[in-house]
C-alpha cells in the first residue's frame, strides 16, 4: 500500500484516525447476512483493499461506515466522517502519483485537499445500500483531482503588473539623487489642468554638436526644439538650471 509524504493532508488524516485506535475509538460493527462482525480500523481497510476480498464484507463495511458518518450529529468532532475519508485514501494513491508525475507544477497538498473535499461533498449524496458506494466516493475524489490538475496546468503565470509598474516608475528622493559635477537639471511643471503632462518628455542632442564644453550638449538648440508653438496648447513649463544650483 502506498503512502504520502509525512506532512501531507493524507498523512495527517492517517495520524488522526490511527491515533485514536488505541481503545478510544470503537471498532466497526458490520452485518453480513445473519453474522455480526467487529472489525478494527486496519481490518476494515484490509476488507476493502486486501488481496483476498469478500464482496459481501466489502459492501457491508462501506454501508456501515457511510451510514454512521451520515447520522453523525453536526456538533460532534466529525470522527465518523473522517473515518470514511480514511477508508477512501488507498483508492486515491495511484491517480495522485500519476498526476504528480505528469505535472510537476501541481502542488501535492492542494491535490490531497481537493480529494478530501470531494469525498466529504459526495458523502451526503451517496447511497449507503449501494454495493458500489465506496467506488462512487473514490471516483468523485479522483475526478476532482484530475479536474484541479488540468485547471492549474492551463493557468499562465504572469508578473505582478502593479508591483512591476511601481518598481519601474519609482524615483529616488531629491536628496538621494546624485548630481553630475557639471550638468543641468530639468524641472517640468505641468499646467493647472486635469490632464497635465500625458507623455514622457525626452531631450537628446547628437554628440557631434557641442556648443558648450561643460554640458556636452547643444543647449540652445535643445531648448529651441522643446519650445511650444504659438498655436499649440501649453502642456507644461520647463526650467533649466545648473546642477546643484539654488532653486
Polypeptide structure, described:
This protein is mainly α. It folds into 2 domains: about 10-155, no CATH class; about 170-240, no CATH class. About 45% of the residues lie in helices and about 10% in strands. The chain is built from 9 helices and 4 strands. It has helices at about 10-20, 40-50, 55-70, 80-90, 95-100, 110-125, 135-155, 160-170, 220-225; strands at about 30, 35-40, 185-190, 235-240. Strands 1-2 form a two-stranded antiparallel ribbon. It has a two-stranded antiparallel ribbon with strand order 3-4. It is rod-shaped and about 105 Å long. Residues about 205-215 have low confidence and may be disordered.
In short:
45% of the residues lie in helices and 9% in strands.
Amino acid at each position: 500500500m502506498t503512502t504520502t509524504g509525512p506532512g501531507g493532508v493524507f498523512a495527517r488524516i492517517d495520524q488522526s484516525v490511527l491515533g485514536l485506535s488505541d481503545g478510544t475509538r470503537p471498532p466497526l460493527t458490520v452485518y453480513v447476512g445473519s453474522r455480526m462482525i467487529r472489525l478494527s480500523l486496519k481490518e476494515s481497510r484490509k476488507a476493502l483493499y486486501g488481496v483476498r476480498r469478500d464482496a459481501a464484507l466489502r459492501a457491508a463495511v462501506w454501508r456501515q461506515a457511510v451510514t454512521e458518518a451520515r447520522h453523525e450529529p453536526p456538533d460532534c468532532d466529525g470522527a465518523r466522517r473522517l473515518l470514511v475519508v480514511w477508508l477512501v485514501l488507498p483508492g486515491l494513491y495511484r491517480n495522485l502519483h500519476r498526476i504528480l508525475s505528469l505535472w510537476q507544477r501541481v502542488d501535492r497538498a492542494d491535490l490531497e485537499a481537493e480529494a478530501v473535499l470531494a469525498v466529504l461533498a459526495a458523502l451526503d449524496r451517496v447511497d449507503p445500500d449501494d454495493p458500489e458506494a465506496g467506488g462512487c466516493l473514490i471516483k468523485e475524489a479522483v475526478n476532482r483531482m484530475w479536474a484541479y490538475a488540468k485547471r492549474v496546468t492551463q493557468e499562465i503565470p504572469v508578473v505582478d503588473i502593479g508591483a512591476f509598474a511601481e518598481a519601474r516608475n519609482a524615483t529616488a528622493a531629491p536628496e538621494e539623487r546624485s548630481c553630475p559635477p557639471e550638468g543641468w537639471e530639468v524641472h517640468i511643471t505641468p499646467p493647472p489642468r486635469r490632464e497635465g503632462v500625458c507623455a514622457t518628455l525626452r531631450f537628446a542632442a547628437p554628440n557631434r554638436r557641442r556648443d558648450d564644453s561643460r554640458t556636452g550638449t547643444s543647449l540652445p538648440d535643445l531648448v529651441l526644439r522643446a519650445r511650444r508653438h504659438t498655436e499649440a496648447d501649453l502642456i507644461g513649463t520647463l526650467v533649466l538650471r545648473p546642477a546643484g544650483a539654488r532653486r
